[in-house]
Amino acid sequence: MTPAHFTSLDTDDQMNALYFEGSILANRYEDEFIYLLYSLDSFYVEIRHDAYTNQILQVTAFKSTDKLEPYLPYLAEVE
Asked: Superkingdom of this entry's organism (predicted)?
């Protein structure tokens, strides 16, 4: 699967792909939002979730490691 194919799926299919095929890497909190970072195939997926309304607000698929910077403090170091 590619990021373009993933983003073309409806939200339910995206969540199923993450649940069955993805790996959660980290989560972080910013204001009332929870951000979840997944790896799926050869790309990453970030979910922005509103904690107050319990709704997914945004799903972003990307390959660039530049977008991982906010998660660096939360990623476990593997030795």
From this structure: Bacteria
If pLDDT is split at 50, 70 and 90, which confidence band does 48 have? very high
Over residues 7-25, the pLDDT tens digits come to: 999 999 999 999 999 999 9
Report how far residue 19's alpha carbon sits from residue 2's, in angstroms, rounded to the nearest whole number: 16
Q: State the CATH class of domain 3-65.
A: alpha beta
Return the H-helix or E-strand segment holding 40. strand 33-40
CA dihedral over 29, 32, 38, 44, signed as positive or negative: negative
The strand pairing partners of 45, in sequence order, are: 38, 61
